[in-house]
Amino acid sequence: MGPMSTPAPTSRPLAARGLLLLAVLGVAANLRGVIASVPPLAGQIGADLGLGSGWVGALTALPVLCMGVFAPLAHRLAARLGSATPISAGVLAIAVGSALRAYGTHTWPLYAGTLLAGVGIAIAGTLLPGLVKHLFPPHRAGVVTGAYMLAMMAAAGLASAVSVPLADALDSWALALAVWALPALSGLLLWLPLSRRVHHTAPRVDADDEAAVTHRLPLRHATAVTLTAYLALQSWQFYSALAWLAPTYVDHDWTRARAGYLLSVFTATQMVAGFVAPALADRVRDRRLLLLPAVAFALAGELGVLLAPDAAPWVWSALLGLGQGAAFALGLVLLVSYAASPAASARLSAMGLGIGYAVAAFGPTVMGVVRDTSGGFRAVWLVLSVLLIVQVVVTTRLGPDLERVR
Known about the structure:
Shape: globular
Helix content: over 70%
Number of helices: 17
Mean pLDDT: 82
Radius of gyration: 20 Å
Number of strands: 0
Strand content: under 5%
Structural class: mainly alpha
Order of helices and strands: HHHHHHHHHHHHHHHHH
Largest sheet: none
């Protein structure tokens, strides 16, 4: 080969990666909006349908439970079909499930649509970390993770901010929830043109790889168990705060719209932390140097809501967002860095996200029951603060020398 042939193969993969990144962001933007659109409307939904706090919390918990139950299924589908086709099906399920919630004034379509969207979120969200490891250079994994975290949280922040105005404009909270079918269709249109390329380049199961063929999760691997415990605690915190931050302040006589904006600050600061933390992770060998400050920010926010909710609510919300956004994004980075191969990353993601989300799914509902039992939200934030202290203990074990999952 002559020297003139060198530039072409370099530029074409870079251009292809740029298009692939755009498609990944299009998918990621639909992984939280369905969930974040509910809390600002929680009071109205409960009043119209005669639901208690536990049942309203289940609208946030149900997609999280799906992420736990269907994460292993996503791994199995990807092992047999490749990642591209299941992701396409997942985004389509988000669109159809969101549209079904247009009939949410009847209870069953509201929960059925939420369930279907949750299945789609589980499939697409589980498979993205493994694709990032395979399709982007190792030294860019943190930046790409940060980018799709940014897209995911930007959509969640938008959903929180506009849910109440949309419900008022459309004179229907059900239609306001169904609107999120449109960005899902847009994400699908971005993904489909590149899905064939992803299908042909993503790793497939090696028949000689016993672990991949049997789809065994690393249930006895100490690193996987520790990381799964971290993800379970972090996700419990995140989805409980997402579900009950706005209702806490509605209980303090805030308007639904203003409480929705407070939730938008929560998600907006997650965007910042979710982008910056993974980028910093590329430069830091011991990720505990980033994980522990993230937990400290979240604990400061929760204690603020608990002890002085009206003193600086916007600050508490921002601290919560910074802490939770960084903690979750760094968890996704660890799913990649603690794995020795893309197949191992898929198994580790299936276990960490599957079990972690299955546990975390009970968070919003349990916290709703705590609220109903105690008669207020102070007990909710007290329980969450105690759980954050447990999370600190688990975080201290996530050192750089843990054995990688193979």
